[in-house]
Structure formats: C-alpha cells, structure tokens
Amino acid sequence: MHCFWRYTLLLWLGTTTLKAQSYQTPLFNFDRGAERSYVDSLLQLSRQQVRLIGQLPATPTADTARMEWLHFMATVYHNSYSRRDSSRLVANQLAQLAQRKHNIKYQLKALQLLERYHRSAGDKFAEAIRLNFQMLALIEANPPLASMYTWRIYRNLGKINTSLDQRADAITYLLKSLAWFGKDPRGEQNQLADLHQSLANVYLKDNRLAEAETHFIESLQHVDSQHGNLSSLAYLSNDMGRLYLAQHKPAVALQHLEKAIAYWGQLNSPMPQSDALADIAQAYVALGKPDEAIAHAKQALAQNRVVFAVRLTALNTLVAAYGQQHDWKNALDAQTLYLALKADEQQAQNRSDVLRQHAVFERERLETKYRHERQLQEQRYQTLAREADIDRLNNALETTALQQQSQTNALWFRLEKEALKTAATQKQLAQQATIKQLTVSELSTRLATRKRIQDQLFTGLIIISGLGVLLVYYSLRLRRSNRALRAKNADIEAALIKGQRLERKRVATELHDRVSSLLGATKMTIQTIDADTLPPQAKKLYENSLFLLDDAAKQVRQLSHNLLPKQLLEQGLVQAINDLVARLNLADQTEFSFTYPSANRLPLSETAEFNLYVICLELCTNIIRHAQASHARIELTQQERGLQLVLHDNGVGITDGSVAGMGLSNIRERAQQLGGHFHLESILGAGTQTTILVPLG
Description:
By secondary structure, the protein is mainly α. 76% of the residues lie in helices and 5% in strands. It is extended, with a radius of gyration of 38 Å. Residues 1-21 have low confidence and may be disordered.
C-alpha cells in the first residue's frame, strides 16, 4: 500500500511538472529492474507524461519533453529483462519523431537504444554493427556531438567484437573508447568502471592476466568512488574471482566470489548467483575441499537449468571433486552429464557460428566503407582548401592591381601639379617653348605609364594562367582518385559475392561428402544388428532409427544441393530454378509452378545468376515457412529494361510486424548490388507478390 501511494504521488508530481513543460525524468534503479511493481509504476508514469505532452501546443520545449520521456520509457522496458521487445518499438517511435523534428541528439539516443536491443539479442550483431556506423556518420556531420557519443559507439563495437570472439578488435575499440571518454564532460564514474571491466574481461579471455587485473582494480576503484549499485558490484566481484582462479589463487578468488554471492542474495537474483556458485565450487576444488565444492556445484545446478557455461562449469567441478573423494561412480555420472551437455552446447555454438561470421563480414564491410568515405571527405576538404587558396590569390592580384593603379593616378596628379607650377613660374618666358616642353613631357609620361600598365597586366595574366593550369591538374587528379576508389569498391563487392559463393560451395561439399558419408556409415553400422533377435520394443526403435537416418541423409543432400546447385554452375539460372521447383513440390506442402523464357541460358554474369538464385531460394523459403499458401507461381521474363523475376503466392499476406524478420533486407541489398530494383506488394489474407528487375549484360 505504501508503494502504491508513493507512485501515485509521483504521477501527480509528473503531471504538475508537465504544465511547466519540463522534461526531467526520474532516475532508474537498475537493482530493481526485476521488480514488476516498480517497473510498472515507471511505465505508467511515462505513458501518462507522453499522453499529456501530446495535448500541449507544439513547441520546441514540448517536443524535447516528449522525446525525453519516450527515451526514458524505452530504457525502462529494456532494463526490465522480460519486455525488451517493447523497448525496440518505443525506440523506433522516438527515432521517427526525432527525425521529423530534425533533432540529431535524440536521433543518436534512439539509435543507441536500438543498437543495445540488437546487441543484447545475441543473434543480431550485424544490425547492431550497422547502427553503430550509422551513428558515426551522424557524428561526422555534427562534430559538436563527437565528445559525447564517440566513446559510446567505440564501447558498443568493443562489446560486439568481444561477443564475436574478435579479441584484438575488441581491445582496439575499447582502448579508443577510453581515450574518448576523457573528452566527455558528462561522463560518469560508473560508465568508466564498466569500460575498464569490459576491457579486463577481454584481456582475461586472451589470457593476458596481468593487464586484466590492472583494469579490474581500476574498475573497482571507480565503482567504489560512486558507491555503485549492487548489480555492478556483484558482476565485478564475480569477474575478479574468475581472474584469480585463472591466476591459480583460489583463496583470493574465494573472497571475491563470496562477495558476489552475498550481493546476488540481496538482489534476489538466483540466475547470476548460480554463476558465482559454480566458480566458488572450482575454488574449493583447487583448495582440496571436495565436500564444499560438491555442495556449491549442486546448488548452482539447482538454480540454473538454462545457461550452458554455468552448468558445464558445475558438472566439470563435480567430476573433479568426486575424483578427489575417489567416488568414481558419481564422478562417471557427472562426466556423462557433462559430455551430453557439451554436445548440446556445441550444436548451439554451430548454429550461431554462421550468424557470427556474417556479423564479422558486415563489420569489415562497414569499416571499409567508412574509411573510404573518410578519404573522400578529406579529399573534398583538400579540394575546397585549394579552391580557397586560388580565390585568395586572385583577390590578392586584384588588390595589387588596384593599388598600383591608385599609385599611378597619384603620380600622375603630382606630375600634373608640378607641371602647372613650372608653367606658372616660367609664364613670362617664351610661351611657345614652354608649351612645347609641356607637350613633350606629357606625352613621355603617358607612354611610360601605359608601358607599366601593360607590363603589370601581362604579369597578372601569366599568374592567373598558371593558377588555372594548377586547378585543372588537381581536378584531373581528383577524378582519377574517385575512379580508383569506385573501382576498388566494385572489387570489394565482387570479392564478397565470390566469397559467399565459395563458402556456399564449401559448406555444400562438406555436407555432401562428410555428413552424408557419416550418416551412411552410421546406417551401415546399425544394420549390422540382427533385428530378428531383438524384442518388439527394441525392434521398433531399430526400424525408427533407420527411417530417421534415411530422412536425415535425404535432407542433407537437399540442403547441400540448395546451397549451390550443380545446374546453376553448368546449365544456368533457368535450369537451377526448374530443379528447385521440382524439389520443393516433393514436400507436398505448397505447389510451385515456374514459367521462363525459351532460351535456357540468359545473358547474365555468374554473379548475377548466383544472386538471383539465392533471392529466389530465400523467397521460396519464406513462402513455405510463413505464407501458408496452397499455390505459388514463379515467373522469369526477359523485357526491354532487363530480366524480371516475379514470385506470387495465395497465402495469408505479410503484416507490418513480420517484414523485418523475413530476410527481405538481404534480398533488397542483393538486388541493388546487381543495379536492379526490389518491389513487394502484400494484401493481408490475399497473398504476396514480389518483383525483382535487374539489367541484362
């Protein structure tokens, strides 16, 4: 009841503050992220504030207040663990609003939230990397924001590379982040502690224990100086315990791990506490205390039935502890469970390796693109600087010419005045002789002045001509550099396509030669069993095993063929799609039909044929998985503008929420790489039509 009235008062205060158009949001207590009532109260407050702001007249202050509360709402959703998908929806709403209002600061905040969501998902690292480089591009266009956001972007890239096990790149990015952190006047000590802890964990993985210990101690000092939250202290204590275990200092490790267990106990968080329990069991094994090790390992297994790493550590510790007690039966049982769980972990690891490899390729591609854009920008700046120098020289020449003209005029007036004085003093002398002398002097002066002006004009013309030649030279050099960069980008894209094709061919060969052979050998081994001697139940299992092996071998052959069909390499795109349709119709799920030009070989490059086949395969897979269609039609037509590939199904259509997860962005990128266009039309309940148009030749 006390909690209810307190948050009701908070709502009232928030409403009163809104009338003054303030956008101060409350602080979020990360230690209470698992408390449903606490999170719900903050979300209720956020929704109330956003709704009230929407009723106010549109002003810059009101817009800022609305964006700040949307940012706070997305943060609360993300840190409540169970509702992180909602954080992505609110962050997208914030990004759209900030873009409409041309507010770069909140665009960056929204991209930070989206990046953190994709990075936390574990299988969306490529999208997280793309968002980080998008933020770098925004900062390049808005240098005043660099000090506040550059270190955050490098921190994100460091953590992504840590998850991808790219340790050298992770260390490079995290060190860059530390260097930039000192330039941010708003940087907080707990953020600096997190940076040192992240860098220490990479050094720990890389077995650079002395450097890891230095950064762990630095992180602990910054957390203590801020009296950091319990969850930060718990994670840091657990990581330091793991470090001292690696340094073979179990007694020191035990001190830190016991602190971590106490912190997690105060936070009522059994899952992360199980990690510390498994590590403390290892410390007791190293200290020769098997009873304590067994008790803590069993407690870790009881509290965590999900995370592979924790359960594997606990089971491995049980094997060692039972071995110290010479309890070989329990040691064997623990070893059996460990091997089974290790196999499951390896399968999960294999499934995520492809995603990680794609993320590494995406990071390398974006880094190359970013470097090229920086080089082009620098060349543009150099060109502008040269043009500015030329303008300054031209202005200087014009100024010099004007000064010389002014001096000439002054000299002319002075000579004329002297001539008048001479004429006045000698007026009584012979007038005719004076007039003749004045005429001769005047003509001589004019001729000399004209010659000087001609010489000056000729010199200026030579200088301007030289500057023009220099400008033409630098323009030609810049054009050659641009052509070289474009050619290099084309080579990089071609290399990526070739790499994908070679990787598909390698995987297909491995599946066909090794996995199929292994399945065949397994089947032959099982067939050596005399089924007639088996009891009925075992005989049924025997027959079911043979059936499953046949089915697995069939699926491996089909998968290896789909990855890079032989017909695509030998007979071209038309025959490859024709065979793909025949194999898809064997599944008896969706009936596919295929119409195509009379010519079996089309005027397409190998890269274009490969990309079009991959696009067709991805779209067919989407139809089978999501469309619930009874019939699908594939049309390949040759037109004046190019080659058109159309896929139409009579399924349920595509909703807005499912578009992002169906691989359509990859299809659109492949079509753009071919210089083509991608178009999608879908009516809910009436099917979907996808059109890809690429140029020929």
